[in-house]
Amino acid sequence: MSEKNISIQTKTPYGMIAILFIGAFVAILNETLLNIALPAIMEEFKVNATAVQWLSTGYMLINGILIPASAFFIQRFTDKKLFMTAMALFTLGTFLASIAPAFGVLLAARMIQAAGSAIMMPLLMNVMLTAFPVEKRGAAMGMFGLVMITAPAIGPTLSGWIIEHYSWRMLFDIVLPIAILTLIFAAFKLKDVTPQRAIKLDIISLILSSIGFGGLLYGFSSAGEKGWDHVLVYGTIIIGTLALITFTLRQLRMDEPMLEFRIFKYPMFALSSAISIVISVAMFSAMILMPIYIQTIRGISPMDSGLLMLPGAIVMGIMSPITGKLFDKYGARSLAVFGLIITIVTTYYFSKISMDTAYSTLVILYTLRMFGMSMVMMPVMTNGLNQLPAYNNPHGTAMNNTLQQVSGAIGSAVLITIMNNKTTAKAEELAASAMNNMSANAAQATTQSASELKQQILNEAMLHGINFTFFLSTLIATIALILAFFIKRVKPSHEAYTGGEVDEKQLAE
Fold first, then answer.
1. Distance between CA atoms of 111 and 327, rounded to whole angstroms?
2. Which of 146, 240, 284, 478 is the right S-S partner for 320, CB 3.0 to 4.6 Å?
3. Which CATH fold topology does 263-433+449-492 show?
4. What is the pLDDT of residues 252-296, one digit of tens each?
């Protein structure tokens, strides 16, 4: 097997990392930027809600298919070629979306965007693991967390403001020049810091991976809209599960797997993955439930609902690099435990919100919750990646990103289903109670008052469903807290990218 070895970095390539950061930021920002614009797109292209939802679902599916393959791409191609290709695809997709004359063109443009963005996050993580020594990785990954968490949080607020004042196409027009400039700078400034190996892509593994992860993501993402008894939901989940089992067994038998599942033999990586999955599910509860509560029940505008979440995004942005430095000094366990306690307490208080909870109270609770979560995700993930030998970094980053995509989709679907079931049951109970208590005079109520009563019952029922789901999220976060007590600080073993053992003298050379 031929190899291309890159020498160990003596100087951290900050310029290169800055370019990767900007590329990753606009790519992640683009994931949430379009959500508030969906009604305007429906109106312009005369499509229904099911069709327009594919602008988000399709984007996520392409990510779910390509992220597992990113380990292969990172090992096979140079950093510069890979980033240039990914950024070129993202830029092309953004341009096509901006000028899209029909819905089909816009959907294809989103798919092209997703093909580029899927590679950027794993590539950035892998470059940072290679470029920074272990004692500085916490601070570096803290900056990475700034991109990963802040971009999707800012998206709804920025999108809400743009949609109120401009056309939805402006969402792409703003991103396009940034993408073009990033591509130009990358052509001149980008260097290669990670090693490459002349490995071959196993086509069968790629097909199984695409069917497995794509099927699970589509099935669980569609459950909230179509219902669990719809053939497309349970059918794609079953097919995806079977394909994923076959894919995993195949990888375990291969000498050069597309995605290395044997990295779970490292206990801290396995533990960090488990905690990240649980936290992803808990984190999605607020991202899904808060907009429903704020806009549907309370009638607060999309712009104001986005502003409600903005302080939390800013706090997470400020805390990410600080948390990284604290991780370098104290390790992940103390940060994760403290952060999860804050997360659990604030999530519990969210389960107690009412029809007249003050806007300022919601802002404070959400901001404190984000403050707590800023201390958990990146330290836990970095601690797990630190235990992997260097040659497994591409597989570790690909596995983490894949698990977050899948757990986020599954968590969202399950939480929405639970909320809907509780809402329906409570609405029936309240309606029956209202009928029993209705007096003879009330029976003569006008259609308007009956309509108001129906809306009141629906809002109270939905609030009950949201409260219960937040309480369930509290219990889920508690599981993560229990797991966090088992975190141990680790140092990576000194192994070459090829998998062979080398001694300290060899590393120094």
1. 37
2. 146
3. Growth Hormone; Chain: A; (1.20.1250)
4. 998 888 888 999 999 999 999 999 888 888 776 666 777 778 877
